[in-house]
Amino acid sequence: MVQEYLDPNGNSTSVWVSNAYTSIDDAVREPNDPGTATSIYANKSDDSEEQTYTMSNTVETYGAVTQIVIWVNGMIVAGTPEITCRISVGGSWETAQNMGLTTSQAWHSYTFNGSWSAANVDALLVSFITPNMPGSLDLVTIYCAYADISGTAPGAGTNMKINIADTWKAVDNIKINIADSWKAVSSVKQNIGDVWKTVF
Ligand SMILES: [Ca+2]
Ligand SMILES: [Ca+2]
Q1: Distance from the CA of 57 to the center of ligand 1, in angstroms?
Q2: In which band, very low, low, confident or very high, does the pLDDT at 152 lie, cut at 50, 70 and 90?
Q3: How far does Cα 91 stand from its chain's mean position?
Q4: Which CATH code fits 2-152?
Q5: 109, 72 Cβ separation under 8 angstroms
Q6: How far does the centroid of ligand 1 lie from the alpha carbon of residue 21, in Å?
Q7: Rounded mean pLDDT of 113-142?
Q8: Of 164, 163, 169, 82, nearest in space to 128 by CA
Q9: In a designed cystine with 63, which of 20, 49, 79, 152 is the match (CB 3.0 to 4.6 A)?
Q10: What is the mean pLDDT of the chain?
């Protein structure tokens, strides 16, 4: 399994009364406490508003990303404004889910399962959606949010890279020139302890 964390790195919409991504990119992971110094929040001026963030890109190499868990540390400060969360990945929006925030600051998560490429996940959008908030005191706050993504390792012979002068270059479909003829080397093996092992 391959796994990593992605943090908010930009505002895709800026509609909640307090919405800066820099307030929730603390990079604190559940169960640790992100504190309350910086937060985003929605109040009575944010009826049914979708506050959306872009996320940092993947660094690991995947066969496929199969799970995206959205973690949120937050609380309902006043009233009953239960927020939902949805994600856009692979060009389509998943169904919004209730994040289960309560009147105490705590971590909550929702898991989205599927099969996506790293490029799909690099375009990930994460949204938090308010309900109608008719109460003059309605207030919901998020202190920290991140995505915990995981998936399968790449299969043999795919996504192989070689480092040249500190830059990783893909070497899929590599060929070698033998006697002025280019030969594919897609089934390269090396002999280790008298056993032939596939290299790529
Ligand atoms: Ca924060
Ligand atoms: Ca608003």
Answers
A1: 20
A2: very high
A3: 14
A4: 2.60.120
A5: yes
A6: 9
A7: 93
A8: 82
A9: 152
A10: 91
Cα 46 to averaged position of ligand 1 atoms, centre (Å):
20
Calculate the alpha carbon distances from 19 to 41, 93, 197 in Å.
7, 21, 53
Cβ neighbours of residue 155 under 8 Å, at least 6 residues apart? 63
pLDDT at 17 over 70: yes
d(CA 190, ligand 2 centre) in Å: 61
**Which pLDDT band, with edges at 50, 70 and 90, does 168 fall under?**
confident
**CA-wise closest residue to 90 among 49, 62, 118:** 118
Give ∠ CA 143-92-74 in degrees, rounded to 5.
10
Q: Where are the domains of the chain?
A: 2-152, 161-198
Task: For residue 17, give the ligand nearest its CA.
Answer: 2
Residue 154 burial (CB count, 10 A): 16
Query: Residue 190 — very low, low, confident or very high, per pLDDT cuts 50/70/90?
Result: confident
